[in-house]
């Protein structure tokens, strides 16, 4: 039990949690925020969205192949 609470193991757990949050959790939230607000944004919100895309680019790059947010095809 003391091995799990040792300083190096605790540091590894904290780093893994921070990396998981940065690479998976926040980019997933941001992707759905993009989907919900992309065509309704004002200029300042568009700047904010571009900042989020720049700041969380590695996570967005990891998750983007698994999501398809293209508009639905029109029926003719």
Automatic annotation (TrEMBL):
Phylogenetic classification of the source organism: Bacteria, Bacillati, Cyanobacteriota, Cyanophyceae, Pseudanabaenales
Primary residence: membrane
Pfam families: NdhL (PF10716)
Keyword terms of this UniProt record: Membrane, NAD, NADP, Plastoquinone, Quinone, Thylakoid, Translocase, Transmembrane, Transmembrane helix, Transport
Subcellular location: Cellular thylakoid membrane; Membrane
Catalytic activity, reaction form: a plastoquinone + NADPH + (n+1) H(+)(in) = a plastoquinol + NADP(+) + n H(+)(out); a plastoquinone + NADH + (n+1) H(+)(in) = a plastoquinol + NAD(+) + n H(+)(out)
Source organism per UniProt: Pseudanabaena yagii GIHE-NHR1
Subunit structure: NDH-1 can be composed of about 15 different subunits; different subcomplexes with different compositions have been identified which probably have different functions.
Entry EC number(s): 7.1.1.-
Enzyme class: translocase
Coiled-coil region(s): none
Its job: NDH-1 shuttles electrons from an unknown electron donor, via FMN and iron-sulfur (Fe-S) centers, to quinones in the respiratory and/or the photosynthetic chain. The immediate electron acceptor for the enzyme in this species is believed to be plastoquinone. Couples the redox reaction to proton translocation, and thus conserves the redox energy in a proton gradient. Cyanobacterial NDH-1 also plays a role in inorganic carbon-concentration.
Record PANTHER family: NAD(P)H-QUINONE OXIDOREDUCTASE SUBUNIT L, CHLOROPLASTIC
Name used for this protein in its record: NAD(P)H-quinone oxidoreductase subunit L
Record's bilayer topology term: Multi-pass membrane protein
Membrane-crossing residue ranges in chain numbering: 12-34, 46-67
Family: Belongs to the complex I NdhL subunit family.
